[in-house]
Amino acid sequence: MIETENPSSIRLDSIDINIIRQLQNNAKITNKDLASQLELTTTPIYERVKRLEKLKVIETYVALINPVKVGKGLMALCMVRLEKHTKEKLAAFEKHVANIPEVVECYHLAGQYDYHLKILVRDMNAFQHFIVNKLSTNENLANVQSSFVMSRITDTTAVPLTEES
Amino acid sequence: MIETENPSSIRLDSIDINIIRQLQNNAKITNKDLASQLELTTTPIYERVKRLEKLKVIETYVALINPVKVGKGLMALCMVRLEKHTKEKLAAFEKHVANIPEVVECYHLAGQYDYHLKILVRDMNAFQHFIVNKLSTNENLANVQSSFVMSRITDTTAVPLTEES
DNA sequence: ACTGAAAAACCCGCATT
DNA sequence: AATGCGGGTTTTTCAGT
After folding, report:
1. Where in chain A are the domains?
2. Which CATH class is domain B68-148?
3. Closest-CA residue in chain A for B60?
4. CA-to-CA distance for B26 and A80, rounded, in angstroms?
5. At residue B128, what are phi and psi to the nearest 5 degrees?
6. Of A36, A62, B124, B146, whose CB has the highest number of CB atoms within 10 Å?
7. CA–CA separation, A129 vs A159, rounded Å?
8. Residue A9: what pLDDT?
9. Is the pTM of this model over 0.90?
């Protein structure tokens, strides 16, 4: 069995893990509240958070928006296959996709498909426009298999944390 | 053509859109900075943000964590098909999946598959454990088609905003 | 690596227009 | 709906352990 050690070699103790756990759920929690939960004062909390930010364990803090309330009620998932897989063709496709604002996720895959895309649009009409006028203008595209999200059972930005970090 | 009006009927002007745009990128921006960018004082910014929170346009504020740096270096996408689609069987599967911490996304789909799952684990070994001991313990599962993320071209939590909101 | 305290910056309500 | 001010919190720094 291959051991997969944390490649970035960042030592996180249980206090760090707890801080991350809290901030993943609510970035607005105060150092004071964190401190009282962890039975510390604000200074070590402050310094630990700054350290996690500096190490890029914490990448950013963001507001999460309800897409329905800003007129983006349709989420689609597209599994994409390309014709050719040369380095240049892959890079060209990635550049193409990176410039389409409707695409909120684009992952290069190992498996049956080449790319997974997550699309946020107003409605099916806007989706058709995306497919016809935006995605399929890339010459190397072979085929796209789309699915539409009816309901979200789980949808979290929080990375599941175990004590082995 | 069917007109799809914003179903929640929330009127957002360009100042609101700009506030949301900023907060989607950086939740830590101060009202003061937002105010100077939008050429206002802090009070209207404060009141608009509070309104957006109250209307649940802004759902929460979260810290985004680099999964690699906390030992979750493997992301997998699973397309799931179930045997039976009765209301009870679907609800049972959803409840099952909602209790697996490795599952950060579970969407019920219209299309060729029933569910899309996004999985975050340490490595392939942990993924196998997830499949064998966690996911496939649901009796109604027919088959799972897994893909593995090699690279992320785009990966944002920001909803693309147009002026028609 | 932590405590405790103090300085600086910001949040948030209020009076006003 | 906006401005401007002021009290209360929070963030951030610092001396001491």
Report:
1. 3-54, 68-148
2. alpha beta
3. A64
4. 31
5. -60, -45
6. A62
7. 34
8. 65
9. yes
Q: Phi and psi of A156, rounded to 5°?
A: -125, 150
Given a cut of 90, whether residue B86 has pLDDT beyond it is yes
**CB atoms closer than 10 angstroms to residue A163:** 9
The answer on pLDDT for B4 being more than 80 is no
- Give the mean pLDDT of B34-51: 98
Any chain A CB within 8 A of the CB of B144?
A: no
Q: Strand A103-110 vs strand A115-121: parallel, antiparallel, or unpaired?
A: antiparallel
Using a 7 Å CB cutoff, list residues 42-71 of A near strand D.
42-43, 46-47
Q: How far is the CA of B50 from the C1' of D11 (A)?
A: 21
pLDDT value for B163: 82
- For A107, the closest chain B residue by CA position comes to B152
Task: Give the amino acid at A91.
Answer: A
Q: How far is the CA of A43 from the C1' of D15 (A)?
A: 13
Chain A neighbors of B147, CB-CB under 8 A: 79, 109-113, 116
Q: Does pLDDT of B149 surpass 50?
A: yes
- pLDDT at A4 (0 to 100): 45
Domain B3-54 fold: Arc Repressor Mutant, subunit A (1.10.10)
CB atoms closer than 10 angstroms to residue B29:
16
Q: At what angle do helices A31-38 and A42-54 cross, to 10 degrees?
A: 110
Q: What percent of chain A has a predicted confidence (pLDDT) above 90?
A: 92
For chain A, strand residue ranges (E) read 58-65, 74-82, 103-110, 115-121, 141-155
**Helix or strand holding residue B154 (H, E):** strand B141-155
CA-to-CA distance for A134 and A138, rounded, in angstroms? Answer: 8
B contact test, residue of A65, A103, A129, A161 with most B CBs within 10 A: A65
The bases of strand D with some atom under 7 A from any protein CB are 1-5, 9-15
